[in-house]
Amino acid sequence: MSRSTSTSEKTDNLHRRTGTIDVIVIGAGHAGLAVSYCLQQRGIDHLVLERGEIANSWKKERWDSLTLLTPNWQSRLPGFKYEGEDQHGFMTMPELIRFIEDYADFVNAPLKINAEVTEVRQNTKGYTVTSTGGEWTCKAVVIASGACNIPNVPKCAEKLSGNITRLTPHDYRNPDQLEPGGVLIVGASATGLQLADEIQQKGYDVTVSTGEHVRMPRAYRGRDIQFWLDRVGILDERYDEIDNINRARKLPSPQLIGAHDPQILDLNRLTDNGAKLVGRIMGLRDNRAIFSGSLKNICALADLKMNRTLNTIDEWAQENLQTIEPPERFERTRVEDKPSLTIDLTNNNIKSIIWCTGFRPEYKWLNVDTFDEKGQMKHDGGVANAAGMYLIGLPVLRRRKSSFIHGTEDDVRDISRHLAAYLHDHVVRGIGGS
Length: 434
What we know:
about 25% helix
């Protein structure tokens, strides 16, 4: 029979700087805390290590006006959910940080903060985890350190001259950081459009370099789009049911904003307010930015995919709902007949570039042979190919909804179930017995 970890055991774990433990969880964001909750439910001895504070990345690596893309009724974690009155609102960063801190209090995890992991290596019993807070030997490791540790900035950025402000979403806080002049936003995901819209409203001339993107309305047929994605089952599609899972995991976040107004935050809204659209950035030379000529095709494809999703929603609604607002379609993305293929940054007074080109996780401390030829962690739905190692909190990890906070719940339950079976069998495949 499983047992709950006692308060004295938790306190002992916190004060030990070395020792043996069943599981080390790396990261105390929402995913790491959710893992701790499920491990406690199963009576599994573990310790959570956090490089900074609880919800560290939300506190230190986000811009001021950011809100969640999901409505409050979807804000839930194992054993815990949003209980406020504004069920259809969207959490601001202070509200989300408070939500995660409240969850940490609820979980009461065995936790060491300010314990940055510096190395994870295999040993005959499992793993040795070294951190600034101590060193432990464990049978299993759960990596919950997040997917957004390092901004993806193209190598061509190195060729920019020194008089242009260069930022990523980790650095950007608000438009007051920007020099007077034009702003080039590279990337048209949720982040790129939100920053472009905010900066444009402050009076800056904005140019948006647009690559592949996912166009999506905030509301459709009188309901939030997340209502439809949830009810139709799109968000529950499993990773092993998706034709090209590697591509799905690389897709940018949908063009949404945490607000009901505007109904749709898209490239048309930006161009209506004076923004200039160009294609995907291909390079920089002599302070000239070079762009792809495929802008029209990229935008047409995004429109097509959005309408396919809306068709799927319409089919489900017709079969399952008696009363609902009629179907609607949105204007196609408007693109100039001949978008610019180059921009002289100096002559066009571009003073700032914000690289909204995605993120990648950081595993420089992971001294384990579990990477492919491209440096990506090899895993099957979060179960790493290194025995006893697990991942949580990555996009489309086990389901499409893994990218959202509420998607963590099902993923963590799956991972903790697999981990518990692994510990029960006392098997460390390819490493040796414990």
